[in-house]
Amino acid sequence: MTGSTPRGDVSDWWRTAIIEMEPGVIKFRGRPIEELIGTVSFPQMIWLMLRGDLPSQGQAHLLEAALVAAVDHGPQAPSIAAARMAVTCGVGINNAMASGVNMLGDVHGGAGEQAVVLYRDIAARQEAGASFEKAVQQGLDAHHDRRGKYVPGFGHRYHKPVDPRAPRLLVLVDEAAREGEVTGAYAAIGRAIQAELKTRKGTALAMNIDGATAVIFAELGFEPPLARGIFCLARSVGILAHAWEQMNQGGRNKGPTPPEYRWTYEGPE
Amino acid sequence: MTGSTPRGDVSDWWRTAIIEMEPGVIKFRGRPIEELIGTVSFPQMIWLMLRGDLPSQGQAHLLEAALVAAVDHGPQAPSIAAARMAVTCGVGINNAMASGVNMLGDVHGGAGEQAVVLYRDIAARQEAGASFEKAVQQGLDAHHDRRGKYVPGFGHRYHKPVDPRAPRLLVLVDEAAREGEVTGAYAAIGRAIQAELKTRKGTALAMNIDGATAVIFAELGFEPPLARGIFCLARSVGILAHAWEQMNQGGRNKGPTPPEYRWTYEGPE
Amino acid sequence: MTGSTPRGDVSDWWRTAIIEMEPGVIKFRGRPIEELIGTVSFPQMIWLMLRGDLPSQGQAHLLEAALVAAVDHGPQAPSIAAARMAVTCGVGINNAMASGVNMLGDVHGGAGEQAVVLYRDIAARQEAGASFEKAVQQGLDAHHDRRGKYVPGFGHRYHKPVDPRAPRLLVLVDEAAREGEVTGAYAAIGRAIQAELKTRKGTALAMNIDGATAVIFAELGFEPPLARGIFCLARSVGILAHAWEQMNQGGRNKGPTPPEYRWTYEGPE
Amino acid sequence: MTGSTPRGDVSDWWRTAIIEMEPGVIKFRGRPIEELIGTVSFPQMIWLMLRGDLPSQGQAHLLEAALVAAVDHGPQAPSIAAARMAVTCGVGINNAMASGVNMLGDVHGGAGEQAVVLYRDIAARQEAGASFEKAVQQGLDAHHDRRGKYVPGFGHRYHKPVDPRAPRLLVLVDEAAREGEVTGAYAAIGRAIQAELKTRKGTALAMNIDGATAVIFAELGFEPPLARGIFCLARSVGILAHAWEQMNQGGRNKGPTPPEYRWTYEGPE
Hints:
Radius of gyration of chain A: 22 Å
Strand content of chain A: 5-15%
Oligomer: homotetramer
Helix content of chain A: 55-70%
């Protein structure tokens, strides 16, 4: 009994357009795996799995850049810290990785997704007839109403004045736009948000990695939740690298701070 | 206060050779991130993060093939099933991904790691003076003593007679060996195990994807735990693709089987 | 260096009113652990940890009933299924438990929390001057506007006509109300919602376990997120029991359905 | 179609002696849930789920003491730290709890399990005819051969000279032994290990909480993996309490140390 020959309602319980199997046969999105191995790049395979078709070289190049850019932000990031701590607790390396990925919630991993939503909302306002300036302003206002004061993808508490990843990613988007691989519309939106924020706050709030990768994801037509999903794929690399390094360093039950620094007790005597 | 300017014992509590940061500066393994983005491929970046240097094109090509080959094995795999179920339970997409990766334990995700250990043990016996035949036989015997009857990387309960991914991966290893990118020594060991198992069992127990990717990891010099770690990176792609597909399908609290099929109760009346 | 003697800003980074430690001393909410062990019940300890004080016997009795009622709903529940699958994948028993708890999201584990929010909203409308009938009707309407068609805590896709846990829990609430341990106000609200839903739908949509435990949590003054948190504590018992049973049954890489039932492929040829 | 009326091989795929269901009926270990709610304590329910029968009051009292004793060890414990960090990353409270439990691996959560194995091995040696002294010595030697230098359940890097939980738990075991609820054999073994370690090392290595709860679990006849599982249930209480406290404190993306303390970079320039 195979995936392509379902057996009544039980085999119908799980349905997929991603993978088809028979003994000796594995096809992804209709393509035999042996024709993909050694032929498509890993980013192309990621695209195929998520989208159903293969990207152009230029599209794959942009996706690859977004993946490379986001692998790691150091042992202070909760995702990385959790994986390093987990390794010292005696769990499998996959469990340590899962502990890291489990941290990439709305606040830690969701800025890219939220930025794609913001960009798309601005684009939709333009399409609906608003001027570019109005679309940006109204999009920002609507975002604040919906989600509060933080503008996802702009500003960085550490990398001041500029997150070094963002300008480099935008250069690649501009190149791809010149080559007709993408329209560049979302790069323009991203830059307009940056300018508008400077006007509103009187100080620069530069595009950060989430803002720049969101430009790429929006240019490439990824749905917002996939911005978070792809970020998880990228960050998993750093999570693994740090878990492995910690495994080699050793340590048992390593807490967040050195043992002699504990915590402030603020409860009853 | 930056990573490169530690502040006493607190900043010394977490130590890393992977990433260095100052405001506006991020370097991985000594290389500025803006020089990596758009320049190195995602597999090269994975290698850099895990190993500290950049691979040759041929090495990266083999690693990429191993990553592409292992992305998914369908909704029956516990890793994929967990992620699809999780999505219907109302958690974030990163949490669904973590639930999938958390399944990749010794049995579900560990065969590649165990196969690298087996291959290396055989290679060590050769280096210590044993003939190739003896090394293979003694290595297999030692494996059985250590871990029981299963030989990791050989045989497949579904893909009979052959896992379509393994022969294609071996073709790529052979090509890389001809080009001097790898020695081919571990491909020979893998094939010799396959032959020895046929002799011992009287029936073919073909190399599967874990056996073939383990050949690649061993040829490329990855430590055994990284075989599992890299498998987790690859499988995360399928986990994400299925989580996303399930999100689009909808469903609430989707259990493993259709609701009218429950379970066999075998306890007291 | 102890919890009660912080060392500058580092020890101030983590702050807690829950636990105080010095070598040889552990106090929870100001009470030495050795005075709690053997003296307070486990539900009393749960209350102390979450609330900062000890409950009366009657309050603890109600909390205990809610804990006992929610331990398990069988291998079809995603939380239980995930833990059973995880065990067959070769991870630690704690990792299998985490995989189960990670499933208890908004849809699978959040109904109790959402029901407390609904009950409190109705109570607030009463306090603000609305009649009981109006408060119930307006509370329900507001819930639908906020969260859509499902009313958390009422109706059950399997236990028709009645979830056997709910009436028993309400009996205990009524007893506690007679004894003055709780007011019974939220039991009245829960029952009024049930009556109103019957009027609106023309068919009974009986209170289920989430609705009944939410009555208890609201009567006891727990904040809504703790309704989910305490449910996680209760369900962890069933998750552990099933993980352990599966460990004893054996099995390797157990997918959701028997291997010969696979999935329906609905993608391109 | 119900749990007790399986439908062919599909319903036979998941088998359990724990729970039986029909619409309107839920039985655990053969007992209707409505007869358990309000009647059995939460520790009794835990025992019923894990063991299949109900404990005596004295047995339940000991289990309850072990549960109360292990709820928390402060924000420095990786399990607690992970949950607190997770909350600031924007995940659900159940995901934060799962992140905590996922940390309770061999090193962080496994000492109790390992201690039960050690105690049982010593008891088996006695039963096989060894003198008590010899059994203790040989059991310890065998443990060192099997698992290295650490003796699980003895010594504490922080609570010197004595972990305040252990003596209190032993008092309860002694009381239960006098009342005939348990034999006290494992309390004797635990104390003999403590004495032997003092002889061997020349300095006291007092029984800690893991050693003392392991005495209880062994006295009560729990299998070793359940020592870890029950510890996970207990620690989940502290994990939840700290997650909830952190949720009330707020904070976004809270890393392990204050932001201005980063890490030591020890890689290439």
